[in-house]
Amino acid sequence: MEKGAGEERNARGAWTTPARIAPIMSKVRNLPTATYRWQFHAGFRFVDAIALVPYLAELGISHCYASPYLKAHPGSVHGYDISDHNAINPEIGTDKERQQWVQALHAHGLGQIIDIVPNHMTVNDPNNHWWWDVLEYGEHSRYAHFFDIDWRTPDREYDGKVVLPILGDQYGRTLESGDIRLHFDQVRGMFTVQYYEHILPVGPGSYSRILTRLVEYFSAGEDADSKGRRELLNLIQVFNDQGERVGVDPGVRDGRRTVAQARGELAEFFGKRASGRLALRETLAFFNGALGQGAGRFDPLHVLLEEQAYRLAYWRVSGCDINYRRFFDINDLAALRVENADVFEASHALVGSWVASGDVDGLRIDHPDGLRDPGQYFTRINDWARRLRPKGDAVMTPEERDGLYDLPLYLVVEKILGTRESLPKTWRVHGTTGYDFANLVNGVLIDGRSEEIFDRTYEEFVEACDHYADMLYECKKLIMHTSLGSEIHSLGIRLWHIAEMDRQTRDFTHPAQMAAIFEIVACFPVYRTYVTEHEVGLNDRCYIEAACATAKARNPLVDSDVVDFIQSVLLLEGLKDQTADYRRDVLDCVAAFQQYTGPVMAKGLEDTLFYRYNRFVSLNEVGGDASRFAVSIEAFHEGNQVRLHEWPYTMLCTTSHDTKRSEDVRARLNVLSEIPGAWGERVLGFKERHRHLKEAPERAAPSPRDEYLFYQSLVGIWPLGPLQGTVLADVHARISAYMQKAVREAKAETNWETPSLSYEAALAAFIDGVLDPVANADFITEWAAWIAPIAYVGLWNSLSQVALKLLVPGVPDFYQGTEVWDFSLVDPDNRRPVDYLHRAALMADIVRHDGDGLDARVAFIRALVATPEDGRVKMYLTRVLLQLRRSESTLLAWGEYLPLIVTGTQGRHLISFARRLRDRVVIVAVSRCYWDLTKGGTCPPLGADVWGDTTIGGLPLTGNGRFRNLFTGEHVGVREKDGAALWAADLFREFPIAVLVMP
């Protein structure tokens, strides 16, 4: 990694804290020392959080990191499907309860970071008033520019309409089945179109068609009501006049009010007249096809639907015909154009009030790659926050203002970085949500020497030689051909128009351009670039040029001249010499391209390849590169030093609501890297042993790749304790649900859109057979005995992972419940309720020993180490180090990161570094690759017999060279061996992780 601007190296080559930071550190307040993520939903409300605030404070957390809790689609378990950015989700609580929660946080010295969703909203919800208005008034809606809708496309006949792919079958068949119905909402005086759970408005301009028909019924017969008829005719005129007026001029607010008043009068009209209600029923029956014969009876409803600002469509057309930008391929989530200042203000108003009042100290920005210009958004949100809190929390002189240190809020972004990618330094944020760290720390806990053996085992098991880069390329093309086809089609149209505007490129055919853009996106090496009209960054240029060169190499049939043309567009070459229209079209095209490559990478990599390429699934993590088997200790140190200098307040994540596996599952799986031969022998034996279970009527199931994933996943979640009661049944249910999701995500044997029920049934039968407690009892007994030592060693791996997260530069984040063992797979498995009563009991036991003397503390440590399965040891480690982060917040935030020199027979098992700020020093020694240290999982990794002559040198000594072991309370001094050194045998007498502080 390259050294950034302004970085300073000391004589030992370590990057140090710049001297200019010293006067700033003491002035930065309300920045977190550690965060704790809570998932709010109907099952975990503000009132539940209030009761747990003292627990978080006791644990040592500084800030609660809350999932979105703005108003979401009813029943949402994650909060990302927001329907109203200016209301609290009533399923989570009231504003009064939210205030009480904030007061409880502040009373215990905690702050709040909230997850916000600037990029999209749910559109399958009438509570989304912005979208509802768009469906009523189309492109003339006052909110039409809020959403990224492509209103004009030359190859489609439905210009000016929003395509809504919500139907379960072709439109004609669905209409004539009677499933689409006209309805009248008596409360709001509105006509709506209903299709099962979908409710859509009827535009005001269509009311006259409905009411004119109603007048015919209302006026007929001996009981005709002339006064009522006149009222209806007056309302028809109002809807005609005002509907047209509002449609032509979106700025006419009086017209909208008149329409609302007319609807109120309509509701009152039907409410007070029985004859009116009877006529309304007859009218609805007419439009809903209840009267008349044959398919023609649905013509009135069809004509009415054709008048609307939306077009109902079969859900399968979304891959080609949808004309609004979505969150990935989720039709119910439409993208917001938050780059528009008024959209920003409207969508941030409520959160802004919380920022202004001091209820919120920081924001987590969801999915920034979906924004048109993330850099612009981050600048705007900082200006917005400074306007709301003019004094801010970082009070500095102009001379002290520098980069992230004067930001008014703590800001982190859910940006997924490639292995060799870094966060743009121009972004006014504190860092990422930490997936980059999750993969770094996971990699250093893997034994890299076993890669070749793992490759052989995998290839033998799946009976193929999987090439990671080739598979990613194919997966991305699959996504573009299916779920994200409409976006690439629209992008191709944009390019075609640009080519047509220049005589040098107008002969490039549309098919040739489509073929080229397909290849370029499939070969794109990162999620996206950040080209703007003001700048084409060096990294962005490299990524674009690399993608275009790879596209030519991978597919010789693609027209290289067309690829060069697209490259020139993406790099804005020659733009200054072009017309204003040409420049606008190019900039719009580049923005659309950049907003497209991210979803293709995410869907192709995270949601497809990571379920196909199963060589070692510990590596298949968000932001990970599964072809990179391990991370060296040197690379780990280097990554921490870079982070300290560039993003010292970035989050450090090891488990989140989005990770594919929890930190403890990955830590356990990493043990397999220490025993690759034994793993290979076992897993190949399992395959042969269960071959008889894989006979399906049409094909063997599961496939070898799916079966290999199954065994690794079973390793990851196998329970620590005995298989008593419903434990095995619980494992069975969880692994079955996970495998069904996994094989659908893989999109090889089955998928979400067209699931192969026969394959999935065969897979379920296979799992039933493997986990049958009677028919396969011998296997289950053998498996449990084999997995026990692996699970035991995995616990020590987990402790090392937590310790590193808490002591390297950055802000450690904890996902709900992971302060003790948590063996979860991808959602919804990781959204299971957290047992806080159990955790509170463990905490109470630990707190009771706070005042213990040295001998009692050592005895307590021994008890924790002797029974690691109960989870107390992880909570103890977490709490002790969180307390250290609180007491030494400045040192651990800004102190130098100094790799120490490890020598001796067990040197490869030890990661050691020091954190130093002025005369304060903390020394860290963390064990790794525990299988040999624990003699195959039979004993704790402690003592001189284990560590022998292993030492730690190059110490930044101060004073008399004596330290206190933070966990045991024992004093430790250096020994002389070619200079001052610490002996691992001294450090690890009682505990496999040592943190030394000054006495």
In terms of topology, how is this protein built?
Layout (H helix, E strand, L loop, with lengths): L7 E2 L5 E2 L5 H4 L9 E4 L7 H14 L3 E4 L3 E3 L9 E7 L6 H13 L3 E6 L3 E3 L6 H9 L24 E6 L3 H6 L3 E6 L4 E6 L2 E4 L5 H13 L6 H23 L4 H20 L1 H14 L11 H8 L3 E5 L3 H4 L4 E2 L2 E6 L5 H7 L1 H9 L4 E4 L8 H15 L21 E4 L17 E2 L2 H10 L6 H12 L5 H14 L3 H16 L9 H13 L15 H17 L5 H11 L9 H27 L26 H14 L4 E2 L10 H7 L6 H14 L14 H14 L9 H20 L10 H14 L6 H31 L3 E5 L20 H12 L6 H13 L5 H16 L1 H6 L1 E4 L1 E3 L6 E8 L2 E8 L2 H4 L10 H4 L3 E3 L8 E4 L5 E3 L1 E2 L3 E4 H4 L5 E5 L2
Parallel strand pairs: 3-4, 3-20, 4-7, 7-16, 9-13, 16-17, 17-18, 19-20
Antiparallel strand pairs: 1-2, 5-6, 8-15, 10-11, 11-12, 14-15, 21-23, 22-25, 23-24, 24-30, 25-29, 26-27, 26-30, 28-29
Please, could you describe this protein's structure?
- With 999 residues, this protein is an alpha/beta fold.
- It is 45% helix and 13% strand.
- It has 36 helices and 30 strands.
- The strands form eight sheets. Strands 18-17-16-7-4-3-20-19 form an eight-stranded parallel beta sheet. It has a six-stranded antiparallel beta sheet with strand order 21-23-24-30-26-27.
- The two termini are 36 Å apart.
